[in-house]
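Hey, sorry to bother you again with one of my protein questions. I've been puzzling over a protein and I'd love to understand its fold better. Take your time with it, there's no hurry, and the full record follows here:
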Amino acid sequence: MSNKFWTVIGSIAGVVAVIVTVWLFLQGRSDQSKKLEVELIARSTLVDENVTRTKQRIEILYDGRKIPNYTILQFRVVNTGGQPIRSTDYEEHFRLRFANVAEILSIEQVSANPKQLQVTPSVENPSSVLFPSILLNSGDWFILEVSIAPETGKKLTTEVTGRIAGVKQIEFKEAIAPPRNVTIVDKIERWLKIVQIVFVATALIIFLPQIIRIFRRINYS
């Protein structure tokens, strides 16, 4: 084999080492960031708005009073960053705001991680839910169920507002099903992958020149 071939191999190894180093640097930076994510994981409505004839014949009662319809929304709130969000970090309270809502009927926390995490949001007005300033460590999450009486013939929409120190923007997205819970096993597997990448890159940097010299000696012998 020619010297040019081994020069190319050495160059590729150097590029791989640089890429791995940059990736680890960016990964470390992301682990130091603050992030809060709100995800709509489930939505169910008692009477389908599209079935107009059926709806005209149905009356929905809630605590003995008539409401236009009954919708349940489930939200998963999670600290996806690498830093805790402390109670003192809330410059402006975190809120869920709904459009085209006649009334917010009830709010209930259905689960959380850790289990001792207790959140007691309150109905601020007929279309807004206010959250208290609570500590959320990295990976902490809770699921909130909101029962709503939507306005007839209008699309129910959700907006997330709030201002938290270190959080550029509270992310909001929708999902068909709840995502898999992040466990300690998941975190260990992620760090094992990082360790494997570092080990391979280090081995390439240390041993590749020696391997190249061995092959050169074999070729010249």
Q: What stands out?
A: The mean pLDDT is 80. Residues 17 and 201 are 5 Å apart (CA to CA). Residues 184-220 form the longest helix (37 residues).
